[in-house]
Amino acid sequence: HAKESERGSYRFFTAELNARAVERLELDGKLRDALRLGEFELFFQPQWSLADGRLTGVEALVRWRNGGGLISPARFIPVAEDNGLIIPLGAWILEEACRTAARWRRQGHDLTVAVNVSPVQLRRDDMVARVRDVLARSGLPAHALELEITESLMMGDDLPVLDMLAALKELGIKLAIDDFGTGYSNLAYLKRFNVDRLKIDQSFVRDIDRKPDAAVIVSAVIGMGRRLGLNTLAEGVETEAERTALLHAGCDDVQGYLLGRPMPGKDLDALLTRQLA
Ligand code: C2E
Ligand code: MG
Ligand code: MG
Ligand code: MG
């Protein structure tokens, strides 16, 4: 019987793998056309200062409009990383984000724009030349651009990537560590690469007002950030109770559904106009 059930679970496993492989293959084909067809859109999620409630920046989050629906980046970014499309797609995202933010700044809004950067872009694209060009073309000042990278990139084994990060910093841009706390950081590198901001992952923010363990972790990150002179931003803030707990813990900035979902650029136009008034 043991043999039989083993074979059963094996069959189940391959069926599931096949379904996933087929889905990926379908996405792969459609993704290749999507850029040419203009099916990608940038949404922007506002970031707020906890101390004075000011909108200080936006994070650009890509969306794929396909057949009447929106496909989540969590599904298609991994495929784009595998098939190399992340290089032209990432270039389009950077360009679009900088152009839009430069327009907002010309209208008098003092904000930064954060762009997620895939490890594949840092390994296979000349990000230094690309960022320099995009800044020059868009007119966005370097200090108004923040690149978000994940902790794993800073583990320290990939020398070309670490050199590129250092060269990017020399352009004057800001560097944020996304989903901080979920990976393994080489803490020494936070200082060495002049990281500007730690984005505390939403898994630690969730129910921070009711979960002592999460509260301890968040306080520790904020305390370390403060001593190292880094800005701290809490991601995924959904409730007033979470916001209040973060304020008391000394967090600098927040981002989350409570204060604004990711939205199309024109919706952010309206929000910015209200803030200026
Ligand atoms: P991320 O960079 O950590 O982005 C935060 C994610 O949390 C976003 O999901 C955002 O919509 C979501 N979020 C924001 N506030 C809340 C909240 O209060 N509650 C909850 N439950 N979620 C919240 P999204 O837009 O689906 O993006 C998922 C991930 O896909 C991103 O995680 C990022 O890793 C990746 N991604 C998104 N856009 C890009 C991009 O332009 N380039 C690259 N390379 N990756 C991207
Ligand atoms: Mg991010
Ligand atoms: Mg994140
Ligand atoms: Mg994430």
TrEMBL record:
Protein name: EAL domain-containing protein
Biological source species: Azospira restricta
Sequence ranges assigned to domain EAL in this UniProt record: 24-276
